[in-house]
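dumping this here so i dont lose it
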């Protein structure tokens, strides 16, 4: 009588030199390359808007308005009305403060990240209906229809 035994074969353990090892390494290599590539693309997307203005002929850095500067602007606006434009509005502090005083306030800024952040801050502070923020170069906008215009000078900015 012949007995039949059930014979199962377990997968061979992964040992160095086996044919399955290069395939696994290739998968990990592709995954690592994709992760590094994705991280570099994300870094480029975040850093580029901040670096591009620095490559212009005249570079104007982002310098946030201090609370004292904002207080001084608000003192100058007391008793005034109408519209307000902030040239180089940065993170929108002056525009938002003016909107809280009842002005229809607009900010012009080159840096798109700062414009988006300003819009968020205006929404968060509940004054988004009285504010507007535009990505724009100050040399390409007419400010003649604004009643009040705010601009902070920096040493790099000079008029020819």
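and the seq i came up w/
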């Amino acid at each position: 009588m012949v007995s039949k035994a059930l014979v199962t074969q377990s997968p061979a353990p992964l040992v160095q030199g086996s044919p399955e090892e290069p395939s696994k390494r290739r998968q990990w290599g592709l995954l690592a390359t994709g992760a590094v590539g994705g991280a570099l693309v994300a870094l480029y997307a975040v850093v580029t808007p901040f670096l591009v203005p620095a490559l212009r002929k005249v570079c104007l850095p982002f310098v946030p308005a201090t609370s004292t500067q904002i207080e001084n602007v608000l003192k100058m606006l007391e008793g005034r009305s109408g519209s307000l434009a902030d040239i180089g509005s940065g993170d929108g502090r002056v525009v938002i403060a003016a909107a809280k005083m009842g002005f229809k306030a607009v900010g012009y800024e080159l840096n798109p990240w700062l414009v988006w952040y300003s819009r968020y801050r205006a929404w968060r502070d509940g004054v988004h209906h009285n504010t507007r923020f535009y990505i724009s170069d100050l040399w390409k906008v007419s400010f003649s229809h604004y009643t009040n215009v705010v601009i902070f000078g920096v040493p790099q900015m000079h008029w020819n």
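The helical segments are 20-51, 67-77, 93-100, 112-124.
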